[in-house]
Amino acid sequence: MEDDLISKKELLELTGISYGQLYRWKRKNLIPEAWFIRKSAFTGQETFFPRALILARIDKITNMKDDLSLDELADVFSVVPSTVQIDWLELVKRNIVSQLAAEHAASMLGKAETYSFAQTLFLYMLEDGLQSGEMNVDEGRALLLMLQDNYGKFEGQDCDLLFFRKMGVSMFLLASAGSEVFAERGAKEVLRVNVGKKIEELKLKLTTV
Question: How far, in Å, CA of 32 to CA of 29, rounded?
Fold first, then answer.
């Protein structure tokens, strides 16, 4: 995260936000504490941020704050799943997942009238994998099983989904976000997806669609 940093002074000048806004958003948990990086500079200790992450987050906040309250935005940016129950037919009708993905998921998750947010997240990630063309239907079923068995172990912490394939054999795993993962020789990393980002995307879709 420290490969490309932006100073607080440059950030405020570039985005046009105030010092007060920046720290209010921090207090409201719109900007993670971990993004405030204290480093030595020629003027003493200064605060820096991961450039790409902070600029993208501030752009989202400024574009969305007129439609959502700061508390609602904090929930959108949180990696903690929502407690909302979601009608699976509504997911298809609102184009959050396709009919195909919903039908495949029904055989694994059960064709209930409503799904939990976590189950909806699994469908959303299945949809992404199938639409990308990198994953076939059987691999999609394996993905759902793996998420069902293991996602709860992260207890709201951010993680990455990794998809490997070797000689036609596929494997999915979850790892702490940004962590290094080493596979056996000949295994190809097909996909690496940040689950926290998918949670954010899904919350936004459920809020704004």
Answer: 6
The structure tokens 């940093």 sit at 5
Kindly give, in sequence order, each residue whose CB lies less than 8 Å from that of residue 83, ignoring residues fewer than 6 positions away.
117
Burial class, 91, CB count within 10 angstroms (exposed 0-12 / middle 13-18 / buried 19+) = buried
Contact between 120 and 43 under an 8 Å Cβ cutoff? The reply is no
| Rounded Cα distance, 25 and 44, in Å | 25
Question: Over 70: is that where the pLDDT of 3 sits?
Answer: no
Regarding beta strands 159-166 and 114-116, do their DSSP bridges make them parallel or antiparallel, or are they unpaired? unpaired
Partner residues linked to 46 by β-bridges: 39
Number of H helices, E strands in the chain: 9, 8
Assign 3-class secondary structure to 43-89: CEEEEEEEHHHHHHHHHHHHHHCCCCCHHHHHHHHCCCCCCCEEEHH
Residue 104: predicted pLDDT: 76
| Calpha distance 30→70 (Å, rounded) | 8
| pLDDT tens string 40-77 | 877 678 899 999 989 999 999 999 988 888 988 988 88
Q: Please give the structure tokens belonging to residue 182.
A: 């080493």
Hey, what are 22's tokens?
Answer: 């920046």
